[in-house]
Amino acid sequence: MRKLWIAFAILSLWLAGVGGWIGQGPEESPSDTADVAIVLGAAVDGDEPSPVFRERINHAIALYRQGRVGRIVFTGGRGPSERLAESRVAHDYAIAQGVAEANILTEEQSATTRQNLVQAEAVMQSQDLDTALVVSDPLHLRRAMLMADSLDMDAKASATTTTRYQSVSTQLPFLLREVYFIHHFWLFGE
Hints:
Blueprint: H1 2-24, E1 34-39, E2 44-45, E3 48-49, H2 51-65, E4 69-74, H3 86-96, E5 104-106, H4 113-126, E6 131-136, H5 138-150, E7 154-159, H6 168-188
Parallel strand pairs: 1-4, 1-6, 4-5, 6-7
Antiparallel strand pairs: 2-3
Helix pairs in contact: 1-5, 1-6, 5-6
GO cellular component, one term: plasma membrane
Protein name: YdcF family protein
């Protein structure tokens, strides 16, 4: 029984450490620039981005307006209950916010974070674009950047400064989800 408690304590410490590491987020600099901002997809509600997705889109638009990126790549296909692709909804939202359509690129095939990055990289290569700022929520970016590194992308993190996940009751489930998915990535590469 003692060995079981020791194993449980070690596992608990490991998971808490990974959670803390995820919570710190990847290294980023407010002066980083790139060819594009890659906005990782999230849920949509009809033809409107979810609050989480809207904040990712708004962050990319801010990077664009600050001149830190020249173009924006929106990612995300259609979820099972979604009428429109996430990237199409983001595209339309950005245009309504004044982003020039010529500076918006989309991919509509991806359904996971890794697929978002693979498809975004293909879009970038088709346009001879090399560098990216990956935009997502702070808790999501640690895993996203591990994936970008595994794909040998020339990418840096750019976390949203506003997020729907502000209280412990909303952050904790998202953090636990990320702890699970980062282990899944380490074990299976996805």
